[in-house]
Structures are given as C-alpha cells and as structure tokens.
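Listing S7. Sequence submitted for prediction.
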Amino acid sequence: MVYYTQNSERKVTIAQSAIAGGIASSVTRAIAQPLDVLKIRFQLQLEPIQNGSKYSSLLQAISSIAREEGVSTLWSGHIPAQLLSISFGVVQFSTYERLTQTFQRSDPQFYINNQNYLNFSNGAVAATCATILSYPFDTIRTRLVAEQKINKVYKGFSDTLLTMVRHEGASSLFKGIVPTIAQIAPYAGIQFCMYKLFTESIFNRLSFFQRRKAIGSVIETTIIANVIAGSIAGLVSKTCVYPFDVVKKRLQIQGFQQHRKAFGRQMYCSGSLQCIMLTINEEGVLALYKGYGPSLVKAIVVTALHFTVYDEIKHFILQMHK
C-alpha cells in the first residue's frame, strides 16, 4: 500500500487510479474465475452438500465439471466476468480515490482523526456506484455459469443479453440487485477499512514490511505486507456478508430454472425475503453459507491480488513520475 505522509503531494490522478483498478481487476478475474464458477454451482444447489448430491465437495465438483462438461467450463462466462470486473474496478477505485482526496484536501485533520470510518464509508459508496453500473454483466455471467454445457441455452454474451431482454425484459438484467447492494456496501467497506488499517497503521510501522526504496516522503509497505493485509480483508469481509451473495445468485436465475433440471431441485421465489425464508425452511440456516469454502478461498485470493496489483501499479506510476 502507498501511504502518504501529511506533507506529501505525490498522488496518482483519478484517471491513473481508474486504469490501475481496471488492470488489477482483469488480472485477478483471469486467475480466480474457476473459483467463482465453483462457488456459483454450490450456491444454486438446493440439495444438501453431502455424498450423493450433484456437488459434494470442492475436489469432487472440479472433477465432475471437468469430466461432464470439460475443463474450459471452469471459465464459463469469462467474457462478461471480465467486463464486470474491469468496469467494476475502474469505477470503484477511481471513485474511492476521488472521495479520499476530497476529504484529505477539504479537512486534513478531520480525515486523519476519522480515517478508518472514512475508509469504510468511501469504500462502501464506491462499490455501490460500481455495482449499479456493472450489474448487468454480473447477471449475464451468472446465467452462463448456471447452465450445463451439454444443454446450453445461450450461445454467448450477446445472445444472453438479447434473449433476456427479449423474453424477460430489461429489468431482468438487474435481478437480485437489492441483496447485492446490501452485500457489497458493507463488504467493500470492510475490505478497504481492514486493508488500509493494516497497511497504513500497522505494517507500515514495522521495518520488515517497509520498502527499502521510498519515493520522496512516501512510506510504502512491501508486496508481502499487501498480500497479507488483502488476505485478512478478504476473509473478514466475505464471512460477514456471505448470505447476501447466496440470495443474490438464486434471484439471478429466476425465470431460468427450466434449463437447470439436470442440477436437481430448483427454487422459485419473487424477492429477497421469500428467498431467504424458503432457503432456511427447506435447507436450514447453514444453507445460506453454501459454497462458502470455494468462496472464501476466492475472496482471500481475489482481495489479496486486487489490492496488491493495484498498489503495485500505483507504485510503478509514482516511480515513473519521480
């Protein structure tokens, strides 16, 4: 993480933050896409996760998908997933930097005194804006991952988009957005708050985690420190808001259940509350954490990569401007 001292003026521009955020998101998505596919398959499975069910464990799910649908299925929906990640990363990081710099310039002392709270609120607002703008990509990606490759309904990104709008209306692209925002605001807020707390208040004070080559009066933490901080941020944030993600995924496939018969029983619901109640009544409270294993691994890997790559790009930009 790049940490600026009070007198430092060396900051990346909003445009540079947007570029760094887009690149970081694209790299992270390419690496973590299989974990996302696994997570979604588990989340949409109504049967208990045990021997005899379609997917009973992480390794069994990987083996089953690869055997029945091919290894490439683990990258199903990768194009809309990349569009989702890049657009989300561009908006999220540029909005976050804009909000942060606004507070730093308008009232530096207020920012210093309330830094943790502002990191949380700025991260929450930035992620909410990014979610609203990029959400259709998320819905399309979920549809492509949810279908079985041998019984494909959609031919690709464009076909999915046109088919959904034609048969279900444009509003279908925003199915599940309410629980998504309820999830993403605190999720991103916790991520930014935890990451900044460790990199700017803990690790940057330890010589072991400080870069040997500083840029001016800027104190920077090492890649190892950023990875550890990102991993902790991902673990804590994902655990806190995971049930909302399960509800979101189940809402996103409403209207598509007839094409998922091969995966077992299907849920029919009309809103977040009904989805939650049906899940608890039919599957138990722990069903709200279905897919938690691969999701947690993904959250740790993605958050660590996301923040680390983003900050490394910012570090590179600062060096170029040195």
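Caption to Listing S7: primary sequence and predicted structure tokens for the chain studied. The chain is about 70% helix and 0% strand. The CA atoms of residues 257 and 266 lie 6 Å apart.
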